[in-house]
Amino acid sequence: MKKIFLLTTSLLFAFFLNAQVSKTVNVSAGGLSTQLTSSEKSTITNLTVTGFIDARDIKCIRDQISNLSVLDISSTIIMPYIGTLGTSTSTNYPPFEMPEYSFHKNWGASNTKLTSIKLPTTLLSIGNMAFFECMKLSSVTIPNSVTTIGSDAFEFCSGLVSLSIGNSVTSIGNYAFWNCTGLTSLTIPNSVTSIGIYAFSGCSSLVSLSIGNSVTSIGDYAFGLCDELTSIYVYAITPVVLGSGVFGSVDTRTCSLYLPTGSKSAYEVAPGWGDFIIFIEGQLPVTGIINMKKNVINLYPNPVTDGFYIDGLEATSNLTLTDFGGKILLTKQITANEYVSVGILPKGVYIAILTSGNSVHKIKIVKR
To answer: What are phi and psi of 172, to 5 degrees?
Structure first.
């Protein structure tokens, strides 16, 4: 009986420990801490805040609400604060800015549990290191009101798999998304003019990248160690001047550059851009990034002798076969399991590009 009692007690404790506790509170700047009881601070998992807040309230959320997982501050307005009770050693916090070190891991244990946040729709900037090492944060939407993303703002957010950057952002700070290893696709909107050094370096799962047409500078190693990149969509007709090692470790032999019509010759001779081999003009999606899917399409046999089949196509697709120099050798429509003859091609390595709707698949072929 004692064992059963202890087991039941343990199960109940585990249940209450993992239960979702929601709370909505309307506050005046600096007043959040006094509106929550000690019990609420230790049990709340989902918090919605409305009204006016400042750096003191963000610090309260970070340091005192120990089990917080989901935070919605979209209906708040961040007020200025001058004093020593903010999120960092600073004593001057501007309005409409997510304060520096807002949820920096080293400043509070509750940073480590945050999985979701809705930012204020009136936000203008995200401060330096605001979400540094929020490793469980999985999805972030930068509001269209935001113009700047500070240095190291989302550095080491390794769990981040979905990122939407608002269409008013003009600058992305140094190391802003460094080592966000969960990202697989990224769209830099047309509003952005500058990308800082190491901004997306170490995003090792990034497959597809779209760079808007207003970017004028890309800092050193901005996309270094993004060695899974297979497609880069560039909307600027004139090649952007690149810093050192911007695409360091990207395989420029197999990563395709999709360019505006008429710009290929300029990119072929531009420093950094000219390292790429596959240049494809006039196939840029109108609405931004193309959905890249990996390991969905199966091409067999590979290596190839006389021809191959493609399995996994859901509909009719366009096949483009190129050599490593980007020269198009074959273009045709194909269906699932259709045989494609390449017997006349010499031995070597080729790239098969399959386009269907909003999906693009690229497969390296070895011809024996």
So the answer is: -115, 120
